[in-house]
Specification:
The protein is mostly helical. It has two domains: 4-102, no CATH class; 118-256, no CATH class. The protein has eleven helices and four strands, in the order E-H-H-E-H-H-H-E-E-H-H-H-H-H-H.
Length: 308
């Protein structure tokens, strides 16, 4: 289907005659459907390409790319006139950012919950004991020094960027089920982008920070509070990639972090299974025939006593 039209939102006025803020409901049904899909695509573009956009121009570029991708996915072509593009982009960006930050909070909560379950792996313990509180505080400080929490074994600093928390964070934020973006929009996560890995490492560090006082306290991460943390991890990943380029270590980590989960059904049954079923049926038929013969067999009578 091809749907080509100029899309100009029907801007309703307030009772006093002033213009109201444009909402998603002001779009026609086709455009509204594209807007919803575009928001999901925009979220993928944000976490894969620019977790912290540094300008409105960067945001607008991603918004337009998401709109074009949504049109392609839906098999329609909804064009925007130059006079309407700014208005639509503004509505789209506001709607998308609202969705994105809500999604970030939701996914971060998922990751935090998963990591809370494995907090004992790093040695954190929930207790009111002053000794335990002091131990948790010291542990949080040690894990922050040199970001040793990114290692599979922080104590020996071996297995850099192979911490299980990295995989768990990626799983819980984008691959928890078949309706998650990592599955539906698989191409944005194949392989896992370096910026996405940096974003998850930032979230892990936030989880460590929650134990900085010895007792776990939830921290609401923001771009102002954790933008610099994200940049630190992204820079470290880039340097790691450059120093280990001949061995392609980061490329291997990015591929290994990808969850082999497809939105399509994998319930394919090989023909061999059908042949086995036939053989089972034939064996069961033979067994049943033997049982019938046994039941019909007339055993010799024992009447008359034993022969002398």
């Amino acid at each position: 289907m091809s749907y080509e039209d100029t899309v100009v939102p029907k801007v309703k006025k307030n009772a006093d005659g002033s213009h109201r803020h444009v909402k998603a409901s002001d779009f026609d049904e086709i455009s509204k459907e594209i807007l919803i899909t575009a928001c999901s695509v925009y979220w993928c573009l944000i976490v894969a390409q620019a977790p912290f956009p540094d300008s409105v121009a960067a945001e607008t570029k991603l918004a337009k790319e998401a709109w074009r991708e949504a049109c392609q996915l839906k098999g329609v072509d909804v064009k925007l006139t130059p006079s309407a593009v700014n208005m639509v982009s503004t509505v789209f960006l506001v709607h998308s950012w609202s969705y994105s930050f809500k999604a970030v909070e939701t996914r971060f909560t998922r990751a935090r919950r998963t990591q809370d379950e494995d907090a004992s792996a790093h040695g954190f313990r929930s207790s009111n004991s002053m000794e335990v509180i002091r131990s948790n505080r010291d542990l949080a400080e040690r894990l922050k020094i040199g970001s040793i929490f990114v290692f599979k074994d922080p104590s020996s600093k071996s297995g850099i960027y192979k911490t299980e928390l990295l995989q768990q964070g990626i799983n819980s934020m984008w691959f928890l089920n078949r309706s998650d973006e990592g599955v539906i929009y698989h191409k944005y996560f194949d392989p896992i982008p370096i910026k996405t890995i940096a974003l998850v490492l930032m979230a892990i560090e936030c989880c460590v920070d929650e134990w900085s006082q010895g007792i776990k306290e939830d921290i609401k991460f923001t771009s102002a509070g954790y933008g610099a943390v994200y940049n630190h991890h992204f820079s470290s990943l880039q340097r790691f990639d450059e120093r280990t380029a001949p061995y392609k270590l980061l490329s291997k980590i990015r591929v290994a972090s990808l969850i082999p989960l497809s939105a399509t059904s994998q319930a394919h049954i090989d023909d061999v299974a059908f042949e086995d079923a036939i053989r089972e049926y034939q064996r069961e038929g033979k067994d049943a025939a033997v049982e019938d013969e046994v039941e019909e067999y007339e055993y010799p009578s024992s009447e008359g006593g034993d022969d002398e």
